[in-house]
C-alpha cells in the first residue's frame, strides 16, 4: 500500500496542486523561487497525510528532501531545448525514489520476470514499436510517393508523427486482441479511416493514398498476427 499512497501524494502534489503560475515562476527564478519551497512542503505534507502513520515520518522527510534535490537539478540544468527531456527525467527519478522506499517494505518482488506469459507479452509489445516500424519502412521502401504540394505549410506533417501513430495503433490493436476485445480493432480501423483518408481524398493523389493504405494494412496486420501468436 505504501507505493500506491506515495504515488497518489505525488500526483496530487506535482500536478493537481501545482498551478501553472508556480511552474513559470520556478523556471524563471530557479532556486530563488519561493514556490519551489512551497511545492516541496506540500509534497511532504501530502506524504504525511497519505501514510497516516507517525512511525513513518522519515519516509515523508525522505520524499520531501529527494523531491527538492531532483527539482533543483532540473531547474538548474534544463533549458528550452531540453525541457521535455528533463520533464521525463524528473518524473522517472521521483518514481524511482517511491519505488525504492516501497522496496524497503518488501512490497515488490521480481517473480514476474520468471513468468513466461508476462515475458511473451512484453517481448511482443517491444517488437511492435520500433522493430515493426523499421520492418514496414523496408517493405515500403520501393514506393516513396512525392506529393505535389510538398513544402506547403498546410500539408506538412509533424516530425516523425507517422512513426509514433503507427506504434500507438499497433500497441492498441495488440492490447485489444490480448484482452479478447476484437471490436476495438474494428473501431481503430474505422477511426483512422475517417481521420486519415478524408485528407487523402482531398489531396487527390492516388499514389499517396495507395502508399498510406498499404502501410496502414501492414501495420494493423502485423499487430493482429502478433496478438494471435501470443494468444
From TrEMBL:
<dbReference type="InterPro" id="IPR021737">
    <property type="entry name" value="Phage_phiKZ_Orf197"/>
</dbReference>
<protein>
    <submittedName>
        <fullName>DUF3307 domain-containing protein</fullName>
    </submittedName>
</protein>
<feature type="transmembrane region" description="Helical">
    <location>
        <begin position="171"/>
        <end position="190"/>
    </location>
</feature>
<keyword id="KW-0472">Membrane</keyword>
<keyword id="KW-0812">Transmembrane</keyword>
<feature type="transmembrane region" description="Helical">
    <location>
        <begin position="35"/>
        <end position="52"/>
    </location>
</feature>
<keyword id="KW-1133">Transmembrane helix</keyword>
<dbReference type="Pfam" id="PF11750">
    <property type="entry name" value="DUF3307"/>
</dbReference>
<feature type="transmembrane region" description="Helical">
    <location>
        <begin position="118"/>
        <end position="140"/>
    </location>
</feature>
<feature type="transmembrane region" description="Helical">
    <location>
        <begin position="58"/>
        <end position="77"/>
    </location>
</feature>
<feature type="transmembrane region" description="Helical">
    <location>
        <begin position="211"/>
        <end position="230"/>
    </location>
</feature>
Amino acid at each position: 500500500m505504501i507505493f500506491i499512497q506515495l504515488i497518489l501524494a505525488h500526483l496530487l502534489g506535482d500536478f493537481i496542486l501545482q498551478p501553472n503560475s508556480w511552474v513559470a515562476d520556478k523556471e524563471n527564478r530557479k532556486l530563488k523561487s519561493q514556490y519551489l519551497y512551497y511545492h516541496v512542503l506540500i509534497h511532504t505534507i501530502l506524504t504525511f497525510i497519505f501514510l497516516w502513520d507517525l512511525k513513518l515520518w522519515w519516509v515523508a522527510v525522505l520524499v520531501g528532501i529527494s523531491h527538492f534535490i531532483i527539482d533543483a537539478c532540473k531547474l538548474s540544468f534544463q533549458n528550452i531545448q531540453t525541457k521535455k527531456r528533463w520533464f521525463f527525467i524528473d518524473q522517472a527519478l521521483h518514481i524511482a525514489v517511491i519505488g525504492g522506499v516501497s522496496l524497503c517494505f518488501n512490497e515488490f518482488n521480481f517473480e514476474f520476470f520468471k513468468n513466461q506469459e508476462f515475458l511473451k507479452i512484453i517481448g511482443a509489445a517491444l517488437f511492435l514499436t520500433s522493430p515493426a516500424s523499421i520492418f514496414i519502412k523496408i517493405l515500403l521502401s520501393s514506393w516513396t510517393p512525392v506529393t505535389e504540394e510538398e513544402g506547403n505549410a498546410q500539408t506538412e506533417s509533424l516530425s516523425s508523427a507517422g512513426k509514433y501513430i503507427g506504434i500507438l495503433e499497433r500497441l492498441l490493436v495488440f492490447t485489444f486482441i490480448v484482452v479478447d476485445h476484437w471490436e476495438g480493432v474494428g473501431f481503430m480501423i474505422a477511426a483512422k479511416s475517417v481521420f486519415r483518408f478524408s485528407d487523402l481524398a482531398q489531396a487527390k493523389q492516388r499514389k499517396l493514398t495507395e502508399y498510406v493504405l498499404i502501410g496502414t494494412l501492414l501495420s494493423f496486420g502485423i499487430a493482429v498476427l502478433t496478438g494471435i501468436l501470443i494468444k
